[in-house]
Amino acid sequence: LASLVFQLRAQNQVLKKGVVDEQANSASLKEQLKMKDQSLRKLQQEMDSLTFRNQQLAKRVELLQDELALSEARGKKNKKSVESSSQLSQEQKSVFNEDLQKKIEENERLHILFFEADEQHKRLEAELRSRLEVLETDAAQHQAVVDSLTKKYTETIEKLQNDKAKLEIKSQTLEREAKDCRLRTEECQQQLKNLQAALGSRLEESLCIINEKVPFNDTRSARYNALNVPLHNRRNQLKLRDLAGQAMAFVQELVTALLNFHTYTEQKVQIFPIDSATDTISPLNQKFSQYLHENASYVRPLEEGMLHLFESITEDTVTVLETTVKLKAFSEHLASYLGFLRKILPYQLKSLEEECESSLCTAALRARNMELHRDMKRLTAVFEKLHTYVSLLALPSTRPEGLLRTNYNFVFTNIAASLHGFHDILKDISKHYSQKATLEQEVPTATQKLITTNDCILSSVAALTNGAGKMASFFSNNLDHFTTSLSYGPKGGAEFISPLSAECMLQYKKKAAAYVKSLKKPCADSVPYEEALANRRVLLSSTESREGLAQQVQQSLEKIAKLEQEKEHWMLEAQLAKIKLEKENQKLKNSLSGHLTETIQERSVLPNIAEQKKETTEKSLREPIKSTSLAPDVESREDLIKTHYMARIAELTSHLQLADSKSVHFHAECRALAKRLSLAEKSKESLTEELKLASQNITRLQARPLVILFFPQDELMTTKRSYEDQLSMMSDHLCSMNETLTKQREEIDTLKMTSKGNSKKNKNR
User: Fold this and answer.
1) Which of 38, 57, 76 finishes a domain?
2) Which residues form a coiled coil (predicted)?
3) Interatomic CA distance for residues 252 and 275, integer angstroms
């Protein structure tokens, strides 16, 4: 800050000096301008005097010319006198002319000097004015810069001062905190000493107990430590299960895309360059097509193996490479698919070469085929890499010495790189195959079947590319999690010794979990006494009591039996009606067919009728057609009547069911209200008995006045007030009970009336 202030002050001094110099220059220029103005005024005065002198000389010349004219006029009269005086006039004239010539030359020279001085003055004045304006603008700019700098410097100075004050306050607070920290450190050191002493004593006690009670320490031996159950990380297990689910979804996408790719490639081999429908294809393509037809038996197990692997990862297990036994099965399925790819690769390459040798293959198409030739080799090589690394990951579950935990990160990184390479190869295959498809469409013998097959292959390759890209990005994003979570092991040990120890550990874990679960059985919840009493009252007056429900079940069973009987009856009626309807339809069809045969015979008898009778024949032909349209009209009318009655029956049955349910509900409510009424009457009787007892106590106390003298007056007043309060409460309670009883009786009457009305309506229906 001090250096910044010093620099700002130095810059301020330089700027002040520049401003002072500019002000001095402007003052000197102003003085020069004043001097020039004074010289200009002097020249103007001289010019005025010269013009005045010139006017005088001009008047003098005019006078002399007038005198000359007079002298010439006089010379005519007296030539003699003129001749005598001519010499004098000539001399004077020559003198005047010389004097005049000199004055004219001097006047001309002065005019020239005046003009030059005037021009020089104007030019100098313009230069000085322009320079003055420039200097004024520079001075204004410098002044603005100086003002802004002074303002900036004042602001910075104020800011620095504020910062200085804040820093001083902060330093003071830090000093106080340092003092507090010193005190705390002293206290902590004292506590640490106490804790060390306490822990030392506890350590000695624990060591003595361990030496006396513990027969051996299993964590010292790796064989025994591998049997210890590690700490359960539920979040880690859920994360691994989620990742396994995502991987299973990606593998399913890849399996579907591979199935489509191999199937459409088989169709393509049978179509191009020779169509198997029109001509026989080569034995090579026949064998290639036969092998491609078997692709599902090699591709489907990949999905099944991934599904089994996903199902083996649960929340309760410990998922590490030593316990994922299902990974070995997935590796075997991948090896079988790799064998399938190796089996079809030579045939695929030979098929592409055979296609290049065909007469339909152009140079561009041949180049695309050779690019696909190279891509297929690269694809098989990538699957070989993936199989190698997946088989390495499956080794810890069978032979732990085959892959050390230090190499897990290397294997996972190479799998991610292989998946990215797989994605790049599929992108190249998609690009080259799209170019090949466009070139094959230009072939003159290209059929629509070939175009659609190429489109299907392109769509399957695109799906395969998308699935591989998702799989590669998924594996790369979760690479660290795979490395850390799958290298999880028992406490104090580096790894599991063998798959057998891992399996034993899982069994111990299940036993421990079952034991802890048995210990954590929750106790049966107890119901509070007041809530139990309230529930008992509700149970006594409930509409869903056991007796009511049993009666409702019995009634509903009886209704179901009646409805079944009615259903059988009406089904028989419907069958009889259907048989009658079929008979009526048959009769109607027979009558209509007879009518049609009669009209056809009439048309055959009159084949050569004249053109005038055409209208009558057309009418006779139209009449039977109209008669034939009776059958659909009758059927449609019957359908309408049937649908109408069926809708009406359904509506009536729904109303009947609703009325039955309402009547049952009202009956249950009536029974519940009757129960409540009986309970209320019982409570009323008990309250009336209590009221009688209380009134008897009051009368007994009022009838014994001598005994009251032995009791204090205050105590007697309190007992009297308590009895009066109890009597008033009982009377209020009796009034409320009477009101509720009357209301319940009214409700029962209304419910009985409504149930009677509903039963009557049901009987009428």
Assistant:
1) 57
2) 26-74, 132-198, 546-598, 670-704
3) 33
